[in-house]
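Tip: read the tokens left to right.
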């Protein structure tokens, strides 16, 4: 697929590429329209979008959501594949489903599966390294398109009793296993510098600023919540105002915003098709 080849080419350039989070097709269209080169579908925001939580989302729900997004954008989509949705066998199917869906890359993490809701409180549990390597091996063997990127993420730094030493150890093992990219899930800049010195070659994806990514030679800059948090904040404000005033006037720029939405969903193109066919033949009753 062209999007996968494009994503591979980005990684080879060793530049810091921004990947904002999107949870539905309209969000993804906005991401693309603004000129971003990559879109990211996170588990947290997708779970919230579905009205549940990430640990309760299923492989089917994540794949279906990814398919809807892939259908409408032409830029690469990275998807959060959780912990592979099970053991090595389930991870194999996970890879095949996302690859068939047209996704360009997925990341698989070493948390226990099923993931616990306490993950949202920062209480994380990583599975034994040897068992996770079995998952990664199954994932690498399952893909049929060599351009489909598999990213290994470790939560070992933030797990109960976690350490930078363990994180580096695991990331080195991921590299030896043959993954295309790693995500150490480290927020401390000094610790990331240490890890980068120990593992200098492989592309890294992390939730940091572009400035930090450029300084440390990180390739994918995530921000899964960049749109959802302000979107929910604005939605709450407008709902509260409507409840208080009963006034449905959203904004003085409503026409401009509606026009932008219609442009994103290609409504003008649909008008042209109808004008050349059904509407073009229609004659009003005399």
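Filled-in amino acids:
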């Amino acid at each position: 697929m062209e999007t996968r080849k494009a994503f591979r080419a980005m990684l080879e350039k060793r530049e810091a590429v921004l990947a904002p989070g999107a949870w539905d097709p309209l969000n993804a269209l906005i991401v693309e329209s603004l000129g971003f080169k990559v879109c990211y579908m996170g588990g947290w925001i997708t779970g919230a979008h579905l009205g549940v939580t990430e640990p309760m989302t299923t492989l089917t729900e994540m794949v279906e959501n990814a398919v809807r997004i892939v259908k409408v954008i032409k830029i690469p989509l990275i998807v959060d594949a959780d912990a592979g949705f099970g053991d090595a066998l389930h991870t194999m199917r996970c890879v095949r489903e996302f690859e068939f869906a047209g996704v360009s890359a997925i990341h698989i993490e070493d948390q226990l599966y099923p993931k616990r809701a306490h993950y949202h409180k920062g209480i994380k549990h990583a599975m034994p390294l040897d068992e996770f390597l079995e998952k990664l091996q199954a994932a690498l063997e399952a893909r049929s398109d060599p351009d489909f990127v598999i990213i290994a993420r470790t939560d070992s730094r933030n797990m109960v009793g976690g350490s930078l030493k363990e994180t580096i150890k695991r990331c080195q093992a991921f590299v030896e296993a043959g993954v295309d990219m790693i995500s150490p899930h480290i927020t401390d800049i000094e610790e990331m510098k240490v890890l980068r010195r120990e593992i200098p070659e492989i592309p890294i994806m992390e939730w940091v600023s572009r400035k930090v990514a450029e300084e440390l030679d990180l390739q994918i800059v995530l921000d899964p919540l960049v749109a959802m948090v302000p979107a929910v904040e604005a939605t709450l404000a407008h709902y509260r105002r409507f409840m208080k005033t009963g006034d449905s006037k959203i904004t003085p720029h409503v026409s401009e915003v509606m026009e932008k939405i219609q442009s994103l969903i290609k409504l003008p193109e649909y008008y042209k098709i109808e004008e050349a066919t059904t509407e073009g033949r229609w004659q009003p009753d005399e």
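Residues 231-281 form one domain. DSSP finds 13 helices and eight strands in the chain.
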